[in-house]
Amino acid sequence: MINFIHHFFAPHCPHCIDEKREALICNSCEILRHELEVVRLENKVLLDRILEKPVESKPIDINELKPIGPKNISWNVRRQMLEAEDREKAKLMKSTEVPTLEELEKELDVAESNRSS
Q: What CA dihedral angle connects 48, 49, 53 and 57, to 10 degrees?
């Protein structure tokens, strides 16, 4: 009742004008406006992405490509592969020089004499 009397006697007060403006804007409309802004921004980003110039990549050398082997290898083939790898490792171990026991003792004596002096 008091609001009615206030509006009747002072219809153009600033407080009443602000209330009328806020009443005209509904919450669901604001949510829809926000969602529309988000969709427009996403569309702009996608459009920019589509329209940008493609970056040229360097060509692929076909000679370096290796064919993909079968994933299921039979046990015989796998055993042969493992044996061949072990033979290669054995050749490498034989080709490297293994220091003899006397050489190792000489190195230890030199190290001990360096520590003591």
A: 170
pLDDT in tens, 52-83: 988 888 888 888 888 887 778 889 999 999 99
d(CA 112, CA 45) in angstroms, rounded, equals 73
pTM of the predicted protein model? 0.33
The residue count of the chain comes to 117
Do 89 and 81 contact (CB within 8 A), yes or no? no
Residue 102 is encoded by which pair of tokens?
């006397």
**Count of alpha carbons within 13 angstroms of residue 105, beta-carbon side:** 3
Grouping H, G, I as helix, E, B as strand and the rest as coil, residue 98 is coil
- Per the model's pLDDT, the better-predicted residue between 55 and 85 turns out to be 85
What is the chain's Cα-based Rg?
43
CB 39 within 8 A of CB 31: no
7 close to 16: Cβ distance less than 8 angstroms: yes
As given in the structure block, the two tokens for residue 17 are 């004008």
